[in-house]
Amino acid sequence: MLGALIMVHGDDRGLRIPPKMAPIEVVIVPIVRGDGTAVLDAARGLFTACKKAGLRVKLDDREGQSPGFKFNEWDMRGVPLRIELGARDLEGGVATLVRRDRAFKEEGQKRTVPLDAIVAAIPSVLDEIQASLFAQAKAYLESHTVSTGDRAEFLRLLEERAGMIDIAWCERPECEAAIKEATSATSRNLRRPARSATCVACGEPATAQAYFAQSY
Ligand SMILES: [Zn+2]
Fold first, then answer.
1. Does residue 60 register a pLDDT over 90?
2. Helix, strand, coil: what percent of the chain each, to 5?
3. What are the structural domain ranges in the chain?
4. How far is the CA of 1 from the centre of ligand 1 (A)?
5. What is the Å distance from ligand 1's center to 167 Cα?
6. 3-state secondary structure (DSSP) of residue 186
7. How far is the CA of 178 from the centre of ligand 1 (A)?
8. pLDDT in tens, 32-57
9. What's the gap in Å between 168 CA and the centre of ligand 1?
C-alpha cells in the first residue's frame, strides 16, 4: 500500500515514481547547442554503459525539443533520476545528476559527477531516492491518519473522509463488508499488531491494527 501511495504522491511537477517501480530509472538528456556531435557521442556512450550495468535507462536525443522541455516532460512522467550532459560538462569530464525526489533547486537536487564514475554512482543514488520517497510517503500517511477506539467516531470520520482511520480490527471479511456497506470505505491492513482487544467496528476480538479509508 505504501508503494501505491508513493506512486500517487507526486508534486506540482507531476509524478514521482519510486525507482523500484519505475519503467525508466534513469533518463539521459544531452544538452545540444550548435554542433552537438561530441555531446551526443558521449551521451550515447553513457547510455550503453548504463544498459550494460543493467539499469533501465532512456536516452532522449530527440531533435527539435529544447532541453528544458525534455526536463519538464521527464519530471512529469516521474523518472527518478536524470543525467544532464552539455558541452561544458563534457569539457570538464563531468555530467549532472538530477534527483526527482527533491524539489526544484532544493539542496541535493543536482550533483556533478565525473563521467567515468557516473554509472557506478547511480545504484546508490537510486537507493537514496527510493528511501526518501518511502519516508515522505510514510510521513504523509502519518499526517493524514486519525486513530480512534470509538465506533461512532470511526463511522463519522469515514463519512467525513478524514483520511486514513486507524483502528484495532478483527480482520473478518464480514466485518469489512459491513463497514463498506455503511460507509463505502475499505481496509488497508499493513499487518501491525492490534493495539486493543476488541474490533472498533464490530466488537469481536481484534487481531490487527488496520487503516480504513474511502476507496478512490
Ligand atoms: Zn470487526
1. yes
2. 40, 25, 35
3. 2-141, 146-214
4. 21
5. 10
6. strand
7. 9
8. 988 889 999 999 999 999 999 999 99
9. 8
